Amino acid sequence: xxxxxxxxxxxxxxxxxxSLKSFxxxxxxxxxxxxxxxxxxxxxxxxxxxxxxxxxxxxxxxxCLGFDLKxxxxxxxxxxxxxxxxxxxxxxxxEQKKWYAISLRAMLFDIGVKASKNxxxxxxxxxxxxxxxxxxxxxxxxx
Length: 143
Known about the structure:
This protein has one domain (20-142): TerB-like (Orthogonal Bundle), CATH 1.10.3680. It has helices spanning 20-26, 29-43, 52-63, 69-77, 82-90, 94-109, 117-129, 133-142. The protein is built from eight helices and no strands. It is 64% helix and 0% strand. By secondary structure, it is mostly helical.
């Protein structure tokens, strides 16, 4: 018999990682901040209004890693330079790069928001600048 009262919500991005706890513990604040910075770059690649659904997705993703976007990022790391963020992300392990790409792709293709061409191009640019081979795989998988 199945339980009708408990609907199972599909998990996207970092939340889909079966090793979420250890994944989160292996990341330091600078790495998380660089990830957030680049997520926001992709979200804001479209000059239109702030996409609240994407912003909430970013907040939820990093909250599950124990990082409060509103308190920690805004006050400590908002002035992060793009190149500094890319440099930090280049040094992620391959497993970390994989889950970073999966999570960012989910923001563009899985949460019910149509990604713009500029956002996809920004995602590709970040993949190139951070030497992340998984970004291209995730884009191809989604198109």
